[in-house]
Amino acid sequence: MSAPRGWAGSYALAAVLTFVVAAGSFVGYRNDAFRARETGRARAAAAMVARGLPAPPEAVAADLVLPAEPSARYPFLRRRQLASGRALGGAGAPFTDKLLYDAAGRAEAGGAYAAMIPGSELVLAAQPIPAHPQPGAAAGRAESSGGVAVAVTRPPQGPEGFPFLVVFGLLAIGALVAAAGALVGGRARPLGLALGACGLAVPATLWRGPVPGVLILAIAGAVAWAEHRGHLARAGAELRRQRAAYTFLGPAALAMLILVAVPFVIGLVLGFYDHHHGEWTYVGLDNFAEILSGGGRSLDEPLNFWFTLGVTVLWTAVNLVLHVTLGVTLALLLRQKWLRGRTAFRMLLILPWAIPNYITGLIWHGMFDEQHGAIDSLLSLFGIDQVHWFSSWATSFTANVVTNTWLGFPFMMVVALGALESIPRELDEAAEVDGASAWQRFRHVTLPHLRPALAPAVVLGAIWTFNMFNVIYLVSDGRPNGSTDILVTEAYRWAFERGERYGLASAYAVLIFLVLLLWTVFGTRVLRRRE
Amino acid sequence: MKRLLLVLLAALAACRADDRRDTVVLWHSYGGDERAALEQIIADFNAGDSGIRIEPVAVAYDGFADKITSAIPNGNGPDLFIFAHDRLGDWRAAGLIEPIEYYVDDALADRFRFQALALLARDGSLYGMPMAEKWTALYYNTDLVAVPPRTTDELRAIAAELDRRSPGTFALAYQNMELYGHAPWLHAFGGSALDGAGEPDLDTPAAIAALEYTRALARDGLVPREAKPTKVATLFNEGKAAMAISGPWFRQDATQVPWALAPLPVVSETGRPLQPYYGAEGVIMSARARDKDRAFEVMRALTGDDAAELRALRAHQLVPNLAVWRLPAVAGDPTLAVFARQLEQTVPMPGNAAMRQVWAPYERVLQSVISQGANPGDTLSAAEREVKSYLEGAE
Predict the structure, then answer these.
(1) How far is A99 from chain B (nearest CA, A)?
(2) Mean of per-residue pLDDT scores for chain A
(3) Minimal CA–CA distance to A27: which of A123, A209, A161?
(4) By 3-state DSSP, what share of chain B in percent is helix, strand and coil, each rounded to 5?
(5) Which ipTM value was assigned to this complex?
(6) Maximum pairwise Cα distance, chain B
(7) Tens digits of per-residue pLDDT, B58-91?
(8) What residues contact residue B384 under an 8 Å CB cut-off, 6+ apart?
(9) B273 CA to chain A: closest CA distance, Å?
(10) Least CB-CB distance to B364: which of A76, A290, A481?
(11) What is the pLDDT of residue B63?
(12) Using a CB-CB distance cutoff of 8 angstroms, which residues of chain A are in contact with residue B367?
């Protein structure tokens, strides 16, 4: 059992948590009640206007707004006037005119409504009036031509105040119960804590229904259980002991939560929704089904998910092979003693890595240009005229790969250089004395030492390449026909170039995440097994 | 801890200050002369006695529309923003923008060109006050071309002569990889991107003819095969393209060579002139604008004749204010006079949801047909299917 003094701290923790839940449910209840009361008042005022009765005193404006009449020259300039004959708007018009005008339009389109007006203390209600069937009136115009009764009211009093007395009274009684339990000791101690902490469940249930009530009960139970098992005491002691560590970790943990965890969860949830004109509809797994079925496109069409996945995997594999081969080769060269100016070479070779990759992407895009491009100028020296780099899949893909290899090999080279430094030269020399050829020395001495350092670099490099948005978007831009797009640029296009299908794009992102997750779990395992 | 609290309080105070109702926040993506003119107008307005302060915020054009779409519903968007007419349909459907016909009477509307207002209107409501209009005409390098071509036959004659005099020079450069640049040709062959009901109608004989024609221009070396806007400017500036089709904004780019402006030529084969899109740019009010009456005062000031005159003369904008076109300084400007003539041969650029889905697929059609020699009919019908699938998907 934990120290007998611990009950106060545990109760304080439970009290704070339950207070937050209770306060939240009260604010929700208060806003709802206030909205219901005041929109009801506005509705009543609008109903009185509709019946031709005088509006109540809390109405700031209440009138019957007649149907809009378009201007003769401008069909999109519609004017409205009140039943009294006054036209809405114009110089010196009261500020409520705009409210009346907008409310009439909205009610004509969507029927009666009532709402709080954001940014003001006013409430508005509008109610369309069915037209009296008039003899000789044109058919079809009859439904809403009776105008709209609109009332703008100012609430006579604000929402209710926070019931401090009730809340703090319950918390004080709870403290007494918990203290009593602690005094008795034994099983009464957690029981008293649980009972004392769940006092706010009653008002919370009255305010916002069973959900906050159950939540408070759960908090009370959990705190009592944790206290009983000594978790809280241990956690408190640990926090105190490692105060400095947690203080330093806190900001980073918070940043990770806000910048990584929250967007991740939101993205995950969006994948189950469809977005149209700013409205979100829950569609379950439809987005995933559409993507995985290829959306009705055949396998050789670039917009088919499996086509893009194939391109992405090929893109990643080709790049990794080139990055590793080139990186390791250069690292081996830079290790040679006979090479002069090694430091300078090292600096130069790391340079592509130091330049922001979008700048590199733009530079290479320009170099692959068929009219001005440096590469075509170079090729023309060898009699090869005007390669249209982005006109066919193979050349376009090659252009992307060349750019990304330029960007990617320095990383592998740096990793390999570091690993090579750690290989004792004696091993190499011993193998040489034993008569091993250069290849045998590389194969059996150098390579086994490189592997542990290269394996994580390869896993990481694969993830970077798999999601290398900048190169694809800036160099080939998916040309021709989106066939060189990879999954991440495809997701971007669904979100921002093809009808703002954010839900579908999120589903793409989730699938990318799953592919990379599989790769990280199994890829590392495979690489490790080969060690 | 105390310091942290102070910082938090200061941040809160800053938020409150931002909530001042006499400040109207305006987002724009203007740069260069346009930005200088706009800032001048705003400085003059803020120095006046309206009791309103305009706070301009320059937002990069890339992603501007997406920022509007996401910022306004969250309550941290601008009160006003300047944008082209073509996204209004979506924003209106999403309830992001405020109809302003309440504030506009016939007398105010009479000051603007009708087409500009009409493009900023949707379903019987007006959603923006027109700031600028955009369409293209023919820029020609006066060192290379003495008399601008009136027909494409004359264009070919100029190209043949250029070939003799300075081989490797293109007769013409225009954005041939985008529908915006291709549209004049499409219209000259009697085609259009949407049918009469506003539905996508890409696979038409006229569209095929236009693609075949522009492909031949590239194949015969009259125009560069793949030209994006920056490339058009570079070629024209380096004297490697004798002519360029572009809009008023091109004046800022074409600084290296002497040039003059002419109306776009007639396609000799059809007898119809090239007709560029006519687009409008407006100042648009957010549905969440903090003080709409004040925000409209700012709209009125930004689109007023004085402000428009400054924008026209200093930033070379084409402005829809009719009075400005009658000013001697504007009417006497030879370049603006040509734009005024070209205006008669323009086609209003559709701005509905269907059109928004047409741009990207059409870009791929142009790539496939002009750069890769694909069959125009097949490519167009595939693109049409693609556009329709997007539209269905978005329903």
Answers:
(1) 10
(2) 86
(3) A161
(4) 50, 20, 35
(5) 0.81
(6) 80
(7) 998 878 988 898 888 878 899 999 999 988 888 8
(8) B200, B201, B202, B203
(9) 29
(10) A481
(11) 80
(12) 390-391, 479-481
